[in-house]
């Protein structure tokens, strides 16, 4: 008889110990790479080891090398945490071990994702009938959406890219803000379009695309003369600023362009009654990308892609093969909307998070993170620390003594000190500390402790 209880009990006990310690745990790794190799390495095992011992060894070996990104005082990289319902559902997703590529392979996973997709479309106020794909993250969400866009703009030009490829195809223009996220460039590389197809549109001092500059670039096209994709941004990765999406959509559509919105974290402002004006008009776009492992706070990995036009979405992604069992009754085969064949049932944790929080709970997380970002900025301003951005959402850009070296040293000192953790960046040629408030547990005490730690580290660097 298989012993499931031993390893699973060990895993449960260690998971609970880790989670309960998070509020007071040092926010940063406690071991070097060499120490981790020493703890986890060694020769290739030749024989079997008891599964419970394996779990125990693994948990002990990695513990000091974990970056506690689920902590309420973790402010790096726009990472979220994991809510109890989504974490528990993610465990069950692993236990059930469903291949969610086809309805035939897991009817339950397919129906959960179908229901969750409809909830998400309603939550964001997107057009009825919008298609949804559950992918790994915003990188693959942008890739999938831009694959659909590539299909459609070339179809309008009389070219079938799925059949004919790109050799000899019409040239595609991609107009995107100069402060776009790098996942756009990477997706275009994956799609064979290359980054030379991008024409950067000038931005303002907060990184927002200038609508007048976009209109001027589009006028060079005529209407639809050149297949064109416009990439807008909802939430600049440094400042949190939003492109004027309504103007972008109106102008781009008037010239026959497809509009894609990279809303990795910013599109969640749509759920908040107090912040939704930041994304006014986003529903007019043709496709959208976001992460559930950011503000919905589900475990990694979990990205979402939406397309207002299911036909090009399916045309870019779907596959048919004799051995596959595609459903004939209209049930959802997820491989029609994802770049993966075999895939984890990522929709299950998303379903659990939405059901547990509801619209109001999700809005509360977004609103609280925004308020905590403002609180952090206010603390630092009071101490005459420079805030480089307008804190419109959850991002705070900080610069110390108008000095690159001092700013970078403060970032390093804060990371080493362990009260909180945030990353550095470069904004408009200047070094900055980037504070991202995205965790569902972050509260005023976390902000106050963290701001005090930042100022303490600043004094040490000055001293």
UniProtKB/TrEMBL annotation:
Xref: SUPFAM superfamilies: PLP-dependent transferases
Keyword Transferase attributed: yes
Molecular function (Gene Ontology), one example: transaminase activity
Cofactor: pyridoxal 5'-phosphate
Keywords tagged on the record: Aminotransferase, Decarboxylase, Lyase, Pyridoxal phosphate, Transferase
InterPro entries in UniProt: Aromatic_deC, PyrdxlP-dep_de-COase, PyrdxlP-dep_Trfase, PyrdxlP-dep_Trfase_major, PyrdxlP-dep_Trfase_small
One Pfam family recorded for the sequence: Pyridoxal_deC
Biological processes annotated in GO: carboxylic acid metabolic process
Residue list for modification N6-(pyridoxal phosphate)lysine: 294
UniProt record similarity statement: Belongs to the group II decarboxylase family.
Name recorded for this polypeptide: Aspartate aminotransferase family protein
């Amino acid at each position: 008889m298989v012993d499931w209880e031993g390893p699973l009990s060990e895993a449960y006990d260690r998971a609970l110990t880790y989670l309960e310690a998070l509020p007071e745990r040092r926010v940063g790794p406690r071991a070097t790479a060499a120490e981790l190799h020493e703890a986890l390495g060694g020769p290739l095992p030749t024989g079997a080891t008891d599964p419970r011992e394996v779990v125990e060894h693994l948990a002990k070996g990695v513990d000091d090398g974990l970056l506690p990104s689920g902590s309420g005082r973790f402010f790096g990289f726009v990472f979220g945490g994991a809510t109890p319902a989504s974490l528990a559902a993610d465990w069950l997703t692993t236990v059930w071990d469903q291949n969610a590529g086809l309805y035939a392979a897991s009817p339950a996973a397919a129906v959960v994702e179908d229901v969750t997709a409809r909830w998400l479309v309603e939550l964001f106020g997107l057009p009825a009938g919008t298609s949804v794909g559950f992918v790994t993250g915003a990188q693959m969400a942008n890739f999938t959406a831009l694959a659909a866009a590539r299909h459609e703009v070339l179809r309008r030009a009389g070219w079938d890219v799925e059949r004919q490829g790109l050799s000899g195809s019409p040239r595609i223009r991609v107009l995107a803000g100069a402060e776009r996220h790098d996942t756009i460039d990477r997706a275009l590389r994956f799609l064979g379009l290359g980054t030379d197809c991008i024409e950067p549109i000038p931005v303002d001092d907060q990184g927002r695309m200038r609508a007048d500059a976009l209109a001027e670039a589009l006028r060079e096209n005529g209407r639809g003369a050149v297949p064109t994709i416009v990439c807008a941004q909802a939430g600049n990765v440094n400042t949190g600023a939003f492109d004027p999406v309504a103007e972008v959509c109106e102008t781009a559509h008037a010239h026959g362009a497809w509009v894609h919105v990279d809303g990795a974290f910013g599109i969640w402002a749509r759920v908040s009654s107090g912040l939704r004006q930041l994304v006014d008009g986003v529903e007019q776009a043709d496709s959208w990308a976001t992460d559930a492992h950011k503000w919905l706070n589900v475990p990694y990995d979990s990205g979402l892609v939406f397309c207002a036009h299911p036909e090009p979405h399916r045309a870019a992604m779907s596959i048919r093969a004799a051995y596959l069992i595609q459903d004939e009754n209209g049930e959802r085969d997820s491989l029609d909307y994802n770049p993966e064949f075999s895939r984890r049932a990522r929709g299950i944790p998303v379903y659990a998070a939405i059901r547990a929080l509801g619209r109001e709970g999700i809005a509360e997380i977004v609103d609280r993170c925004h308020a905590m970002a403002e609180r952090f900025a206010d603390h630092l301003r009071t101490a005459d620390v420079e805030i480089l951005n307008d804190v419109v959402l959850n991002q705070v850009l900080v610069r110390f003594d108008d000095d690159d070296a001092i700013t970078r040293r403060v970032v390093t000192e804060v990371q080493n000190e362990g009260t909180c953790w945030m990353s550095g960046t470069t904004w408009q040629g200047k070094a900055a500390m980037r504070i991202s408030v995205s965790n569902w547990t972050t509260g005023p005490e976390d902000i106050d402790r963290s701001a005090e730690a930042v100022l303490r580290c600043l004094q040490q660097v000055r001293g």
